[in-house]
Design a protein that fits this description.
Length: 366
């Protein structure tokens, strides 16, 4: 189908960096850098500085980043074998998979509006060894949750795969809260590479050292391996592409927020539910979600008007066959979100008149 307003014009977004990207490829070929090297080190230093953390460790993708954090914590003796990890039911399946990949057990809990809250964590605290908070759609989990976990000596990690650059009201950046954070640089993310890429950020030196070893076959030095690790490296070409894009992240996020503001202020249709009133706060606006009972009909209506939408998501992890053990569980808010969510176009190249066209189309829907 031909859309005159696509959900995300990924080619146009990435094409902004074509010239610089070509130069980066040429440079790596000239220098003979294929694995690691200066572009990776530079990205790790710059991204750590950007997030306000001491350390950043590049990985092959976001799933690996979160898995490696958990495996490294187990290796350090901070999490037990078979640890029970509290995780929001409303997330992408990768969050659950990182926990099982690390040989641990997800303990899914429902969200309030979109995210886990202090109350939910408090209710399950005695039953879990640690918490993975997820900044879904780019919205940061409340500081209160981190403070509560800290006060109760429960490690808390962040799946920050969607929240690059988001800031709390105190000015703390995504990636700087909790014991460690995992990022994905999947091409469609706010900071996206041209292939798979990911990173871990942390202020904990022991964890940083262990995570780096874990991501490099578990090796201590060139010929010495005293634990089982994995191979999950940030590719130098992807690191170069990320270096080109990091400088533009803040500006891109500002543009996303401006569009989201228009949606929040101007969408008025009794059939359409907007995200919670505080949605714009502490948010990178990776996704702008609206919610409708008659989703399929609405999506078809927008498609007829040439407007493409997306879904985040349709089937929550606990209802997937991959997690049969949770299929009988019920998380009403999560299920409502997955049944009713429609993601609207919201990216830095969207023109004002396109945003207006989307608003008008939604307001005219009956
Ligand atoms: C919330 C969340 N967690 C984890 C991931 C996994 O990242 P990746 O695809 O880079 O492995 C993603 C991205 O797809 C995500 O959205």
């Amino acid at each position: 189908m031909d859309f005159h307003i696509p959900y995300l014009d990924i080619k146009a977004l990435q094409r902004r960096f074509s010239q610089r990207d070509s130069e980066a490829l040429q440079e790596l070929q000239d220098l003979g850098i294929y694995i690691g090297g200066e572009p990776v080190t530079r990205f790790e230093m710059d991204y750590a500085q950007y997030c306000g953390t001491q350390f950043c460790i590049g990985t092959g993708n976001g799933l690996d980043a979160l898995t490696i954090i958990l495996r490294a914590e187990k290796q350090l003796g901070r999490l037990p074998e078979n640890a029970r990890i509290l995780v929001p039911a409303h997330t992408y399946i990768a969050t659950f998979l990182s926990i099982t990949e690390a040989g641990m057990h997800p303990i899914p809990v429902d969200v309030h509006h979109l995210l886990i809250t202090k109350d939910v964590v408090e209710k399950h605290l005695e039953n879990v060894d640690a918490i993975v908070a997820v900044d879904i759609y780019g919205k940061l989990v409340d500081d209160e949750v981190y403070a509560f976990a800290k006060a109760n000596h429960k490690p808390i990690y962040t799946d920050a795969a969607q929240s690059h650059g988001a800031k709390t009201s105190n000015g703390d950046r995504s990636g700087s809260r909790g014991m460690a954070s995992a990022f994905s640089f999947y091409p469609t993310k706010n900071l996206g590479a041209l292939g798979d890429a990911g990173a871990i950020t942390t202020n904990d030196e022991e964890l940083a050292v262990m995570a780096r070893r874990m991501a490099n076959y578990g090796r201590t030095s060139r010929f010495v391996n005293d634990m089982k690790g994995v191979n999950s490296r940030l590719d130098p070409l992807q690191a170069s592409f990320l270096n080109n894009r990091l400088l533009f992240l803040d500006n891109d996020n500002k543009k996303r927020k401006k569009i989201a503001q228009v949606y929040m202020e101007q969408i008025e249709n009794p059939k359409v539910k907007l995200p919670p009133a505080d949605f714009l706060e502490s948010n990178s606006i990776h996704v702008f979600p609206i919610f409708l009972e008659e989703r399929d009909q609405f999506v078809a209506y927008l498609e007829d008007r040439g407007i493409q939408t997306n879904r985040h998501y349709a089937i929550p992890p606990h209802q997937q066959l991959a997690f049969k053990e949770f299929n009988d569980m019920s998380f009403p808010q999560t299920e409502y979100l997955h049944d009713s969510e429609v993601s609207l176009p919201c990216h830095p190249l969207l023109e004002d008149h396109e945003v207006q066209e989307i608003v008008i189309a939604i307001n005219e829907y009956s």
